[in-house]
Amino acid sequence: MNLQKTSYSFLLLLLICVTNYGKAQTISIIPKPMSLKVLDGDFAITSSTSIEFDKRNDELDNIAQLFHSDLLEFYHVDLPTNSRTQKAIKFQIEPESNFGNEGYSLIVNPEGILISASAPGGVFYGVQTLKQLLPVVPSGDIVVPCVEIKDEPRFKWRGLMLDVCRHYWPVFQIKKLLDEMALFKMNTFHWHLTEDQGWRIEIKKYPELTNVASWRNQTIVGHKNESNTYDGIGYGGFYTQDQIRDIVSYAKERFIDVVPEIEMPGHSTAVLAAYPELGCTGGPYEVAMTWGVFKDVYCAGKEQTFKFLEDVLDEVCELFPSRYVHIGGDECPKDLWQECEKCQKRIKDEDLKDEHELQSYFIKRIEKYLEYKNKRLIGWDEILEGGIAPEATVMSWRGIRGGIEATQLGHDVIMTPTSHCYFDHYQSKDKESEPLAIGGFLPLKKVYNYEPVPDDLNEQQASHILGAQANVWTEYITNIPHLEYMIFPRLCALSEVVWSTRESKNFVDFQTRLETTYLRLKLYNINYRDYR
Ligand code: ACM
Ligand code: ZN
Question: Which residues pair with 194 in a beta bridge?
Answer without folding.
Answer: 199
